[in-house]
Specification:
16% of the residues lie in helices and 31% in strands. It has seven helices and 33 strands. Helix 6 packs parallel to helix 7. It binds (2S,3S,4S,5R)-3,4,5-trihydroxy-6-oxo-oxane-2-carboxylic acid. (2S,3S,4S,5R)-3,4,5-trihydroxy-6-oxo-oxane-2-carboxylic acid binds next to loops. The site of (2S,3S,4S,5R)-3,4,5-trihydroxy-6-oxo-oxane-2-carboxylic acid (GCB) has 9 residues, from loops.
Amino acid sequence: MKILKVCFLYQVLFISIILGVSTSLCAQQKISLNGNWPFITDPFDNGYFNYRLQPRSDGYFEDKKPSSPRDLIEYEFSDKHTLMVPGDWNSQRDDLFFYEGTVWYKKDFSIKKEVNKRYFLRFGAANYKTRVYLNGNKLGEHEGGFTPFEFELGENIQNGKNTLVVYVNNDRHPDFVPTVNTDWWNYGGITRDVELWVRPKNFIEDVRVNLSKNGKSIQVELKVNQLEGKNGIVKISFPELGLKEEVTIQDNRAKVSFNFPKKTKRWDINEPNLYTFTAKYESDTYTDTFGFRTIETQHTDILLNGKSILLKGISIHEEAPLRDGRAWSRDDAKILLQWAKNLGCNYVRLAHYPHNEHIVKLADEIGMLVWSEIPVYWTINWESEVTLANAKNQLAEMIERDKNRASVIIWSVANETPRGDARLHFLKELIAEVKKHDTTRLISAATEIHYDGKKQIIDDTLGHYLDIIGLNEYFGWYGGKPEDMHSISFINTFDKPLIISEFGAGALFGNHGKKDQRWTEEYQVNVYENQVKNLQKIPSLRGMSPWILKDFRSPRRPLYGIQDWYNRKGLVSERGEKKAAFFILRDFYNSWELKK
Ligand code: GCB
């Protein structure tokens, strides 16, 4: 996905007035359509299929009202029945708590259409399948719950009032990504921002900025989208670095390379230096900020800007920090990353799917390294070409969206997938897909444990294709006593860095007891103390991201009075209270150093 920032003062102001949204004077031409949207719950997909299960031509695609008392219209979008967009539907209404199926949304908006402009509708994400209709006409569909998509509106958008209808369905299916079985509540709905983007006829569609692997040059690749292909000139600059260049567009693309100026500072965890970049093409201006860093591995080391680093991390689900439901805003991201900072983290594993853009942007700003992942989780249908194409698409959309974020250093292709030939073939295809889009970051996956007596042998064949081996292990929770962990030896058969991508234990905040009593904070402390004490002995260990920052909703966790549909492995409760193990991990991170 592209980030387009333009400054068209008059139009922005005009549209803003009509829509009643506030924009700054020199804003991007992005108009928020967030707000309360009327909706219809449609458990049998009746608005889409007829009684013979064939797609209807007269579905709920429009905001139809009876024109006379005789008219039969059996649905209504009503202002008295609304859902907040963005937001998942499960956490907004008690009657939708466990709902999986279809919801239809409607949104009216008005514009003054201009002939020299192009209009796009952009969704940050909607889970899982989305069909979009404007003024009764279908714009298109999207599959996958965690990546952005957009449609050009063309003739479908009209001067004055427009009516948008959006179908969202989150049914589970064995062929989908994720599949039917997950240990998280797969909230349905339009879960991220919806915006109308107004662009000039010819505009800058995509920019990619990279620091070369040897750190000596900055490479810029740019793509324009123009109705009549022309070889115009694009003006590129990094104003703070005194770099500028005018480049002629060829086949809608331009490429330029600058020597990395000596005075320029790298982006780093302690000093997240970001520099402004602008590109001007005809009436369009693109602006964003970029950080320059290198990331690579050498034997068992992870090198950030050429220096070995330990990844002191925590896993995070995209759950709002202080309320139920999906997180989606910059404010949510601020709290989550602040908690991670308080823990002493320099790295977060954003599990198990791409999180919203705010958190990744913020990670750039505060110097937090990111592991980003797609929902290839547990028991995906490894045999299906359709599933593979879907996973590839979600991967490509994730990378396209975040390819310019210095904070993102790892693309993860899977979580805890059982060994086998079909799975290996599938994941190798995904690794090849990553390399098609990005060769500047590291590739990993969270692999499963494989005990051999007292030994934990790390030898999943997939490891040959990864840069970093991720390993999930739950010693002391799903097997063994916490205090016996010292008797396990971890043997990494790869000459590659190891990250313990998960370990953890469940505890209900405020539940106290003995250290061998499950669900108490003391038990969780016991697990953490033994884990950190023993894991740091593994020679190739270069990071960990225990499971998990905050208690999160899961349909697999029904235990009354304890879980109540929360996975309780959080270091912070669902109300934001810190459990005792939080401080164990914090103290460990404050003292953990790379031993050479
Ligand atoms: C895992 C999964 C994670 C679960 C966790 C658990 O290994 O990767 O999604 O939530 O275990 O709590 O069991």
